[in-house]
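User: Some background: our group keeps a shared notebook of sequences we're curious about, and every so often someone picks one and asks for a predicted structure to add to the entry. Today it's my turn. The entry only has the sequence so far, pasted here. Could you supply the structure so I can complete it?
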Amino acid sequence: MLGGGEALEMAKLGKWAEDLAAIASKAERFTPEILEGKRNILSLGGEGEVPGAINLNNLEGLFKPISEIQESGPLVRADITRPFPIQSGTIDQVVARRLPGFPDEGLRNIADESFRTLRQGGEIHLQSNSANIENLNQALIRAGFQNVRNGKGIKL
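Assistant: Of course. Here's the predicted structure to add to the notebook entry:
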């Protein structure tokens, strides 16, 4: 059920409000049973850029209709600066294209949660024009990533 503020937010979304209501009504949480047997890619803030990836997106400021995003892979409504609703150790690769700048706490959560959800040997590839790269690198190292470098994937 939507509260007054959420109903107002839905009205502002116009043509995408029905899609958002459908996603909001399902508390999607991915488990190993759902992901088992295939290469699992998690796209942070994704809008379908990586075919077949699980798109983790807060659904604010979208460039594409939700139905179009869902055509390329599962869509999970979540804030990437908070704990991810993804089972630990179930992801092979975390990607982020156009990662916005976040305060240090948000960068630490992205790094910590990416590390938690990745399987041993998994990789993370983050692209950003606005994030503080030095702070992001430090967050990745603090989370447990090794061989952190700019412009390349990072292996566990």
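Suggested note for the entry: The beta strands are 41-44, 54-57, 75-77, 91-96, 118-126, 154-155. The radius of gyration is 16 Å.
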